[in-house]
Amino acid sequence: MSATISPRVAVFAGTFDPITLGHEDVIRRAAALFDRLLVGVASAHHKSPRLSQAKRMALCQEVLADTANVEVVPFDGLLVDFCQTRGAGVMVRSARHASDFDYEAQLAAMNRKLAPHVQTVMLLPEASLQCISSTLVREISALGGSLEALVSVPVQRAMAQPE
């Protein structure tokens, strides 16, 4: 069942395994553009996430608690379907570099075919954060490196716990 679609409601979805400072930057800037921003935390059943969906959601909620119009929600399935059921007229996407952008452009075109009334908006993370990826954060954590400049303190604590 679809909700009324609003261009003032947006979705930023991802696995957030874990949520990084780059994610936080994009989310906070997107929240300033829309009345309501849903952060969809994907189940990631096609991946092997380090953190459970419940833990990833809890970390997102904790680090974004200061952003009043952000709601963290579980997400599974097609992003366009999620947007439609949640009444979101906009998908916020992010790219750190050219290869990300190429992939995101293809994804935006396909999503437009599937749901022409849902727009895609691309936001780039702050330049100093563009080198951060969840994959690299997991690897640095596994090798005992410092995550201080990469993720918020609650995420640092969570990553320090055994898998």
Q: Can you describe what's shown?
A:
The chain is of the alpha/beta class. The protein contains 6 helices and 5 strands. The protein has a 5-stranded parallel sheet with strand order 3-2-1-4-5, with helices on both faces. Helix 4 (98-114) links the parallel strand 4 (88-94) and strand 5. It starts with 5 loop residues before the first strand and ends with a helix. The model has no long low-confidence stretch (mean pLDDT 94).
Write the layout of secondary structure elements.
Elements: E1 6-14, H1 21-33, E2 36-42, H2 53-63, E3 70-75, H3 79-86, E4 88-94, H4 98-114, E5 119-123, H5 134-142, H6 153-160
Parallel strand pairs: 1-2, 1-4, 2-3, 4-5
Could you give the order of strands across the largest sheet?
A: 3-2-1-4-5
Number of strands: 5
Task: Give the integer mean of the pLDDT values.
Answer: 94
Overall geometry comes to globular
The stretches of 5 or more residues where confidence is low (pLDDT under 50) are: none
Structural class: alpha/beta
User: Quick one: biggest sheet?
Assistant: 5 strands, parallel
Strand content: 15-25%
What percent of residues adopt helix (DSSP H or I)? Answer: 40-55%
Q: What's the number of helices?
A: 6
Write down the secondary-structure element order: EHEHEHEHEHH
Radius of gyration: 15 Å
Give the termini distance in whole angstroms.
38 Å
Supply the key terms:
6 helices; 5 strands; alpha/beta; 163 residues; globular
In short:
The protein has 163 residues and is of the alpha/beta class. The protein has 6 helices and 5 strands.
